[in-house]
Structures are given as C-alpha cells and as structure tokens.
Design goal:
single chain, mainly alpha
C-alpha cells in the first residue's frame, strides 16, 4: 500500500484518535498534509474537532465518576491535577475554554473539571466551542506551515547552486590558507634556529 492510499484510508481516523489524546502535533502534521493535497483541510478540522471534543468528554466523565480512585492508581497525574485545581479555583470558565491551548494540562484538565462537580451541560457547550476554535486555529496553522515550508524549499532550490558554490569556495579558501600557513611555520622555525 502506498503512502497516499494509507493517508486517504486512515488519515481522518488517525486525526480523530490522535487529537482525542493529545493532538497539536498530529493536527499540525494533518494541516501540512492538507496543504500537500493528501487530505482536505475542512475534513481535517472536523475530524480534529470531534476527536478532541470526544476525548475531553471522556476525561471529564472519568473525573466525575472515578476521580480519586483513578488518581490513587496514577500518581504521575497528582501533581498536575493539583496545579489544574488551583487554576480552576481562580479562573473556572477561562480554564474550561482554554485548557487545550495550555501545554502539560491537556488531558488532566477535563479530568479535574469533572472531579470538581462542574456543570455537565456547561462543560459540554464550552468544550464544543473550544474544540472548534482549537481545531480551526491549529489546523490552519499546520496548513500555513505547509505553505511557508514549500516557499522555503522552493527558495532553497533557487539559491542551492550559489550556496553550494559559496560553501565550496570558502572551504577551498580555508584549505589553501591553512596549507600555506602550515608551510610558513617550518620556515619560521628554521630561520629562528639559524
């Protein structure tokens, strides 16, 4: 199976699953692949939006139903959950809308929000709005990254020959200077001893 067929067949599902767990890197790559024509950007955004939305709803429900027991079994989440809880206590709505834009708390935040007893309906609405905003911003950023990278590569092709010639020329000049300089050192020593 070729790369194109694999991307066509599984690309949107991979985006959905990947963004359900973490996501930024997957979505940037998917945006880049959309720029290259392997995927379609609107479908990339929709798959990412649903993936992140569903993933966060699952973590919210996990926190709601088995928060303390889960934390007892996963001590690596405890320190991050304390940090998220402090943020949540100070900035509830901002955290609910913005956690997916904050590095290091993406999966822990909906879990802690679920543990807090936060309204399910309000979380559902804010999570949906935030997921859509995130998917559009990050997906379009990946697409733009593809455009910038393509321009850089095209520019690199245009200046490739002069750059290579310059590097070879500088290297040759250094080699010539170095070899001339090494020849002068033994002559200087012989003149000094005579």
């Amino acid at each position: 199976m070729s790369f194109e067929i694999i991307i066509e067949k599984f690309g949107y599902w991979a985006i959905f699953l990947g963004t359900g767990l973490e996501g930024e890197t997957i979505l940037v790559i998917a945006g880049y692949l959309a720029h290259r024509g392997y995927l379609q950007l609107p479908y990339v955004i929709v798959a990412a939006m649903w993936g992140t939305f569903v993933g966060d709803q699952i973590f919210f429900q996990l926190g709601r139903h088995s928060g303390e027991a889960f934390l007892a079994r996963h001590p690596n989440w405890q320190a991050r959950s304390v940090r998220v809880r402090r943020l949540f206590d100070r900035h509830r709505i901002v955290l609910v809308v913005g956690f997916r834009f904050t590095y290091g708390i993406r999966t822990v935040a909906p879990f802690v929000i679920g543990m807090s007893g936060f309204s399910r309906k309000l979380f559902l609405l804010l999570n949906a709005a935030s997921a859509a905003l995130w998917a559009i911003i990050i997906g379009c950023a990946g697409y733009a990254f593809g455009q910038v990278l393509e321009k850089l590569l095209n520019e690199a092709k245009r200046i490739e020959a002069p750059v290579i010639l310059s590097i070879v020329g500088i290297g040759a000049a250094i080699l010539i200077w170095h070899s001339c300089h090494l020849r002068k050192i033994p002559q200087a020593r012989t003149n000094a001893t005579s």
